[in-house]
C-alpha cells in the first residue's frame, strides 16, 4: 500500500488530521466573524458629530475639573464644555475655520444665569355666565375664530348662588429626584359665590358689569398676592407667588451650529436673521412694537406674530409687556440691548403647586372637602414666556374661554423682566479619585457657596412692603463659580425668536458615540449610592431652583455672540469662546480619518489652544461623590452620595478594539492548545498500536531509518492536507491571525509526527505478573479492583490523569476569559456594545475548546479499551453483576479524577492569573467542576 492508503487505513492518523483541520477551520471562521463584527461595531459607533474639541489651555481655563484633555491619552472628558471660562478669541476661531481640513468649526459659550418669576398663579373656578352681547360681543367683533352667539352653551358654575365660606391652602414643593421639600404652605379664607351681570345706567345709555353675589367677601392671600375677581368665564383667585426659577443661556454661531447638527439644527434658522449689533437697541425696538400695536394688528399678525426683519415673532406680546414694565421700573437705559433667543420647550425642574379647597362653617370647621388640584411646570413651561397662564382649575370646572376665539396672543407672557446674572454660572469642578478594574475613574465634586432661593420680592405690585416671614428661604449648595464680565451690563430685553426641543437635539447627538454639544444638550445624573454607600436605585436627579447645583437641564435659551456681549457687558471682542467643536473634512470611519484629524489637531495646537481628538471616543459613566450637598438647621453639612453621569472616554475605540481583539486571539489559541494535546495523545495511541508492526519490519531487515521514513510518509499526507486547508483559509480571510493559526497547527502536527517516528521502536514485552506474591491485593470490592488495575497500568493511568487535568485547566481558563470580557472591554458605552457583539462567538470558541479538551481525555481513555473489555468479561463470567461492573468503571474514573484534580485546579488558577487575573477564582472553580463532571461523563461514554 502507498502512503495515502496507509494513512486512510490508520484511523488514529485520520482522526488526528480531521480533528486538527476541523479545529483550524472552525476556530478561524468563528474568530474571523467575531473580529469582523467587533470592527464593524467599533467603526459604526466611534465618530460623533465632530472630531476635535478645542478649548483654552489649562492656564487660561481651569474648568476641566483637573483631567487631562490632551490629544495623546484616554482622558475622561467632562460634558460641561460650555463652562463660561472663555479663553478662545474670535481671531483664533477664524484661523481654525481657514485651515484646509476644517469642515465645520462651531463655537459655544455660557452666557449667564437668568432668574424670573412665573406669571402670577391663580385658581379658576368655573363661573360661566353665558353669552352677553355687551361683554362677549365687543371681544369677538371681527374675529372669525369666535363661536357664533347662537351656539354658546347655557350658563353653568361650580359655585352656589348663595356665597359659601371656603378655606384655600396653597403649597409648593420641589424635588431633586430623591428628596422632596415643601417650599411654603399658606392658607386664606373667605366667601365665594356665583357671579351675576349687573346693568348700570351711564351717560348716554347703560353698561354691563360682572359682580359677585351679595355677601361675598372674596379670598385674599397675603401680599404680594392680589385678591379674587369675577369675569365672564371664571372666578379667579390670585394665589401666592411661586418660587423664582433660574435658567441658563448659551451662545452659539447659528450658521455653524446648523452645519454641525444638520437638520436637527433647523430651529436656529430664525436666529440667523437677528439684526446686527448696532440695530438691537432695546428702546428703539420696544417703541416700534408699541407703534405697531397702536396702529392695529391684523388677525394673521395676532396668530402668527408680526414680521420683524423676516421673522414672525409669535411671542411679541411678552416682549412688549416686559418692555413696558422695565420702562416703568426705570430698568432700561440707552445702552440696553435686545437679545434674540431660541427658548427651550418644557422643563426638567420638579416644581409642583397645589391648592387644597375646603368648605368650612363660621367656626372654621371643615364641612366638605372639595378637593385638591395640582399643577407642575412640565412641558407647558417656556422660559421668558409662557404658553398659558399658570392657572389651576377648581374641581369640576370647564374652560369656556375658547368661545371668544384665538385670543391667546394677548395673554401670553411673563410680565416682569428677568434678572440676568453671571454668578455661579461656570461649570462644576471635580477631583480625580480611584480607578476601577475596568478603567472607570471615580470623581469628587468641589462644593461652592450656598445660594438662597424661595424668597419673596421686597414689595408688592402696589408698592406695599411684603411680609417675609410667611415663607422660609431655602439654601441650595452651589457647585459652580462666577463668570468674568466686562463693564456692568445694562438691563437687556429678551426677544423670543422661536423654540427648540432638547430631546430632538439629543437624538441627533447619537448614543454610544455621543459627544457633548454644550449647555443646551445636558447630561443627566443618577444617584447610584446614598451617603452611607448603600445602593440607591439609580434615581434620576432633578435640577435645583437656583440652577447652580451639579445637575443641569438644557439651557433655557440660546442666543448669538452679540447677545452674549450685551448680557455680559462687552463692547468689543473678547476671548469669550468656551469651546469650538471641529469636524474635519476627512471621510470614512474614525480609523481611516485618524491621520487627517490628528494633522488638523496639530495645526490647532500651534495656535496655543488645547485640541482634544474625540474621534474614536465614546461616552462612559463617571462615578462622582457629592459632598456637602445639604445642611440641617444646626448648619451641619451632609453628602448626597455617589452619582453617575456620562462623560466622554477619549480613544475608547482603540482601547476596546485592542483589548477585545486580544481576547479573541487568546481564546483561539486556547482552543488550539487542546488540539495540540489531543494530537500528542493520538500520537501515543498510534505508537502503541504500530509498535508490533515495526518489530516485524525490523525482523524482515528494515533499518530503523527506513521504518521512520515509512511512518513519516503517512504523516506527510496529513501534513499536506493541513497545509492545503491553511492556505485556502489564509487566502479567503486574508488576515494575519489566519496565517498564524494555520502555521501553528501545521507545526503541531509535524512535531507530533517527528515525536512518533523517534519513539517507534519494537520492545519485547515480558509477562512479569507474579505467580506467588504475598503483596497481591485481595480483590473483594469494585473499588479494590479498580485501584489494582490503575496501579498495574501506571502509564495509561498517568496519561489519562494528565489529560483530565489539562481538560480542567483549559475549561477554567476559557471560563475566566469569558467572565473577564466586560472588564477587559472597559467601562465606556462602546465597551459594552462591543463586548455584547463578541460574546456569542467567544462562547462558541470556548465551547469548542471544551469539546476538544474533553475529546482528548476520551481518546486517551481508550488506549487500553480492548484489555478493559477482556477483564470486565472475565469479571462477568465470575458472577459480577452489571451494577458491580459499573462501579468498577466509576471507581477507575473517580480515582483518575482524584489524581487529576490538583493539576486541573492549579492549572486553571495559573492560567487565570496569567490571562484574566480578576477572574482567577472563577477559573479555579470552573477547573474543579470540570474534573468532577468528567467522572460521570467518562463512565457513561467509555465502556
What does this structure look like?
The structure is a single chain. The chain has 943 residues and is an alpha+beta fold. The chain has 22 helices and 35 strands. The strands form nine sheets. Strands 1, 3, 12, 15, 21, 26, 29, 30 and 31 form a nine-stranded mixed β-sheet that branches. Strands 2, 22, 23, 27, 28, 32 and 35 form a seven-stranded mixed β-sheet that branches. Strands 4, 5, 10, 11 and 20 form a five-stranded mixed β-sheet that branches. Strand 27 (525-530) and strand 28 (535-540) form a beta hairpin. The two termini are 33 Å apart. 46% of the residues are buried. Mean pLDDT is 82; it is low at 60-72.
Quick structural gist:
The protein has 943 residues and is of the alpha+beta class. 41% of the residues lie in helices and 21% in strands.
Rg on CA atoms, Å: 41 Å
Strand content: 15-25%
Mean pLDDT: 82
Low-confidence stretches: 60-72
Q: Given the C-alpha coordinates, what overall shape results? A: elongated
**Main sheet characteristics:** 9 strands, mixed
Helical fraction: 40-55%
- What's the end-to-end separation, in Å? 33 Å
Question: What's the number of helices?
Answer: 22
What structural category characterises the helix and strand content? alpha+beta
User: What is the number of beta strands?
Assistant: 35
Amino acid at each position: 500500500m502507498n502512503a495515502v492508503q496507509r494513512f486512510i487505513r490508520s484511523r488514529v492518523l485520520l482522526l488526528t488530521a480531521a480533528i486538527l483541520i476541523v479545529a483550524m477551520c472552525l476556530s478561524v471562521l468563528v474568530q474571523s466573524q467575531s473580529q469582523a463584527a467587533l470592527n464593524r461595531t467599533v467603526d459604526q459607533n466611534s465618530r460623533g458629530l465632530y472630531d476635535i474639541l478645542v478649548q483654552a489651555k489649562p492656564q487660561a481655563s481651569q474648568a476641566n475639573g483637573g483631567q487631562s484633555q490632551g490629544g495623546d491619552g484616554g482622558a475622561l472628558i467632562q460634558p460641561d464644555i460650555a463652562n463660561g471660562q472663555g479663553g478662545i478669541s474670535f481671531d483664533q476661531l477664524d484661523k481654525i475655520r481657514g485651515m484646509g481640513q476644517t469642515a465645520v468649526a462651531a463655537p459655544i459659550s455660557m452666557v449667564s444665569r437668568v432668574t424670573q418669576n412665573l406669571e402670577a398663579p391663580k385658581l379658576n373656578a368655573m363661573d360661566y355666565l353665558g353669552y352677553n352681547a355687551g361683554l362677549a360681543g365687543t371681544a369677538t367683533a371681527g374675529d372669525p375664530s369666535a363661536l357664533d352667539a347662537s351656539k354658546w352653551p347655557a350658563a353653568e358654575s361650580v359655585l352656589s348662588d348663595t356665597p359659601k365660606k371656603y378655606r384655600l391652602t396653597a403649597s409648593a414643593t420641589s424635588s431633586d429626584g430623591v428628596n422632596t421639600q415643601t417650599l411654603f404652605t399658606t392658607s386664606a379664607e373667605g366667601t365665594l359665590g356665583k357671579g351675576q351681570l349687573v346693568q348700570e345706567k351711564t351717560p348716554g345709555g347703560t353698561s354691563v358689569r360682572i359682580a359677585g353675589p351679595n355677601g361675598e367677601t372674596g379670598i385674599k392671600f397675603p401680599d404680594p398676592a392680589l385678591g379674587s375677581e369675577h369675569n365672564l368665564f371664571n372666578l379667579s383667585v390670585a394665589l401666592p407667588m411661586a418660587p423664582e426659577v433660574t435658567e441658563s443661556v448659551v451662545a452659539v454661531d447659528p450658521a455653524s451650529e446648523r452645519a454641525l447638527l444638520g437638520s436637527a439644527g433647523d430651529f436656529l434658522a430664525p436666529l440667523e436673521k437677528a439684526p446686527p449689533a448696532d440695530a438691537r437697541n432695546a428702546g428703539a425696538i420696544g417703541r416700534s412694537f408699541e407703534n405697531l400695536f397702536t396702529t392695529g394688528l391684523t388677525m394673521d399678525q395676532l396668530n402668527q406674530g408680526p414680521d420683524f426683519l423676516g421673522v414672525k415673532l409669535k411671542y411679541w406680546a411678552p416682549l412688549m409687556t416686559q418692555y413696558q414694565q422695565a420702562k416703568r421700573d426705570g430698568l432700561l437705559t440707552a445702552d440696553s440691548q435686545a437679545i434674540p433667543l431660541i427658548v427651550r420647550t418644557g422643563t426638567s425642574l420638579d416644581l409642583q403647586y397645589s391648592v387644597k379647597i375646603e368648605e368650612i362653617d363660621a367656626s372654621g370647621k371643615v364641612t366638605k372637602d372639595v378637593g385638591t388640584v395640582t399643577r407642575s411646570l412640565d412641558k407647558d413651561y417656556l422660559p421668558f414666556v409662557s404658553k398659558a397662564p399658570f392657572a389651576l382649575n377648581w374641581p369640576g370646572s370647564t374652560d369656556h374661554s375658547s368661545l371668544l376665539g384665538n385670543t391667546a396672543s394677548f395673554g401670553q407672557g411673563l410680565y416682569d423682566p428677568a434678572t440676568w446674572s453671571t454668578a455661579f454660572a461656570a461649570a462644576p469642578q471635580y477631583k480625580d479619585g480611584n480607578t476601577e478594574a475596568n478603567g472607570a475613574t471615580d470623581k469628587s465634586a468641589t462644593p461652592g457657596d450656598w445660594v438662597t432661593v424661595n424668597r419673596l420680592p421686597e414689595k408688592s405690585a402696589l408698592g406695599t412692603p411684603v411680609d417675609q416671614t410667611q415663607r422660609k428661604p431655602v439654601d441650595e449648595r452651589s457647585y459652580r463659580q462666577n463668570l468674568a464680565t466686562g463693564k456692568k451690563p445694562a438691563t437687556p430685553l429678551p426677544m423670543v425668536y422661536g423654540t427648540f426641543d432638547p430631546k430632538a437635539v439629543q437624538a441627533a447627538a447619537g448614543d454610544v458615540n455621543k459627544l457633548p454639544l454644550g449647555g443646551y444638550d445636558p447630561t443627566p445624573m443618577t444617584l447610584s449610592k446614598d451617603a452611607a454607600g448603600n445602593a440607591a436605585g439609580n434615581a434620576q436627579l432633578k435640577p435645583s431652583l437656583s440652577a447652580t447645583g451639579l445637575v443641569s437641564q438644557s439651557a433655557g435659551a440660546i442666543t448669538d455672540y452679540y447677545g452674549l456681549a450685551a448680557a455680559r457687558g462687552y463692547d468689543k471682542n473678547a476671548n469669550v469662546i468656551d469651546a469650538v467643536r471641529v469636524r474635519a473634512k476627512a471621510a470614512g470611519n474614525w480609523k481611516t480619518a485618524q491621520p487627517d484629524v490628528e494633522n488638523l489637531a496639530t495645526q490647532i495646537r500651534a495656535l496655543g489652544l488645547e485640541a482634544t481628538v474625540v474621534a474614536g471616543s465614546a461616552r462612559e459613566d463617571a462615578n462622582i461623590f457629592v459632598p456637602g450637598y445639604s445642611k440641617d438647621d444646626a448648619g451641619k453639612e451632609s453628602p448626597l452620595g455617589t452619582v453617575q453621569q456620562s462623560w466622554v472616554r477619549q480613544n475608547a475605540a482603540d482601547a476596546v478594539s485592542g483589548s477585545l481583539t486580544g481576547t479573541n486571539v487568546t481564546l483561539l489559541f486556547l482552543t488550539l492548545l487542546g488540539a495540540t494535546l489531543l494530537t500528542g495523545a493520538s500520537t501515543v495511541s498510534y505508537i502503541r498500536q504500530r509498535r508490533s508492526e515495526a518489530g516485524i519490519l525490523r525482523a524482515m531487515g528494515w533499518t530503523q531509518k527506513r521504518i521512520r521514513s515509512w511512518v513519516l510518509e503517512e504523516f506527510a499526507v496529513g501534513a499536506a492536507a493541513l497545509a492545503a486547508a491553511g492556505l485556502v483559509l489564509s487566502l479567503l480571510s486574508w488576515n494575519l491571525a489566519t496565517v498564524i493559526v494555520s502555521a501553528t497547527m501545521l507545526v503541531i502536527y509535524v512535531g507530533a509526527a517527528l515525536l512518533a517516528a523517534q519513539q517507534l521502536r519494537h520492545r519485547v514485552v515480558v509477562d512479569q505478573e507474579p505467580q506467588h506474591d504475598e503483596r497481591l491485593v485481595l480483590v473483594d470490592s469494585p473499588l479494590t479492583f479498580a485501584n489494582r488495575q490503575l496501579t498495574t497500568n501506571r502509564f495509561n493511568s498517568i496519561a489519562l490523569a494528565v489529560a483530565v487535568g489539562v481538560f480542567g485547566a483549559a475549561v477554567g481558563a476559557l471560563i475566566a476569559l469569558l467572565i473577564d470580557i466586560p472588564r477587559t472591554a472597559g467601562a465606556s458605552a462602546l465597551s459594552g456594545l462591543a463586548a455584547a457583539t463578541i460574546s456569542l462567538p467567544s462562547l462558541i470558541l470556548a465551547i469548542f475548546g471544551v469539546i476538544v479538551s474533553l475529546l482528548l481525555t476520551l481518546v486517551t481513555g481508550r488506549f487500553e479499551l480492548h484489555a478493559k473489555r477482556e477483564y470486565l468479561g472475565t469479571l462477568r463470567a465470575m458472577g459480577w453483576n452489571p451494577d458491580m461492573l459499573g462501579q468498577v468503571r466509576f471507581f477507575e474514573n473517580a480515582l483518575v479524577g482524584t489524581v487529576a484534580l490538583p493539576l486541573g485546579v492549579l492549572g486553571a488558577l495559573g492560567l487565570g492569573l496569567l490571562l484574566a487575573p480578576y477572574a482567577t477564582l472563577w477559573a479555579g472553580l470552573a477547573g474543579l467542576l470540570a474534573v468532577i463532571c468528567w467522572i460521570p461523563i467518562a463512565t457513561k461514554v467509555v465502556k
